Amino acid sequence: LCSPVPHKKFDEAGKFVRGWDGWRQWIETCAAETGAAYIDLNELISRGYDRVGQAEVETFFADARTHTNEAGALFNARALVGGLRALP
Length: 88
Known about the structure:
With about 90 residues, this protein is mainly α. The chain has helices spanning about 20-35, 40-50, 55-60, 70-85.
């Protein structure tokens, strides 16, 4: 199971704001209770956004804050592959 991908949101200082807190914990709990693997995709992508910075993240979205374009989809897919490779 994976947490949702983050929406584009930055605070006033330009730091990326993670989201989906309640959902992330719920999915992680579901995975633990069922023995499923869990990838916190939200956190993996958010860390990547922290690394590249707001200006580059802005280029990953096709709309105001939700849907990525091709570059954003590829960025997210790389994060997913990294998360899959990190699973035991």
